[in-house]
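Q: I'm writing up a methods section and want to include an example of the input and output format. Could you take the sequence below and give the corresponding predicted structure tokens, formatted cleanly so I can copy it straight into the document?
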Amino acid sequence: MDTQQITAPPCASSPASGDATPSSGVIHINFRHAGGFTVIGNHLAQHRGLSLTAIGLALHIQSLPAGAKIGIKRLAERFPESETRVAAALRELEAAGYLHRSRVRLPDGRIVTRTVSYNQPSTDASTTAAPQPRTRRTKTAAPRSTAQPPPREPAAEPLPATSEAPPPPAPQRTPEPRPAPVFVPAPTAPRTLPPPLPQSRELTPELHRAAAALLADLRRHAPQLVLSENDIHTLTPGAATWLERGTRPDTIRHALTNDLPVPLKHPAKLLRHRITTLLPPPLPGAKDLAPARPGVTVIPLQNCDGCDRAFRSRHPGHCGDCRTELHTAA
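A: Here is the clean output for your methods example:
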């Protein structure tokens, strides 16, 4: 019974006062870092006005070496956050004073973005204190050892001590404020104008009326294509060019209403683009390939109100077959 059991674990020592493990909340297990670490202040790690993305991004930027690239695209490639969230986090850090970005022109003419990171908000490197000048110190004699020193040449007699105080330190020179960097907007590419709307060679009143009716009727087939009177008046010459080249109204309607984007924000701009880019060429051997003769009137195509077939007439209504059926029925 008096043999000690070496396999039994020893009793745990009672925790010292002040180091007791809390019953709830976070428990810290800290190890001392010997290298490769960054000091972050609690004013940043526990900032109440910054998002978690902004705090984490500030920690990452402060851990990078000087000269590292921290553009929006580079950070979005490094982390799973999108470019929009990265840009928003950078703006938060700028507003809080942890980051400052400016565009400067280099001596070779290139324009670059200069980013300054602060480990304290509103801290500038130019405001740090300059090193203090050193004052002259008087040397004190070292204590002599008890051993006999070797013989040496007689030294000169020491100068008598003076009671004069050491000269005062030179006044610190206040650094001159650096000029603010000149903001130069990034060059933008010249805006390209859209191609002109096609124009018919001879826009008769009948052709103009048929094209306008075709555009106004598009909302019955696609409710998104609701056009104002001004939009219909602007797009009518382009639609009349389609009719002038012998295109059936149902073909034009299908080309203009097929595969519409969702959501559709600008119906008039979409129709202008499709009327211009999808314009079919004239049919080979068609009459409209020959030069227009004076005094010749082109009768436009109309959609039959009964069977929706195309027929040439100066006024909309029914085709010949439908009119015959209506007279027979009457």
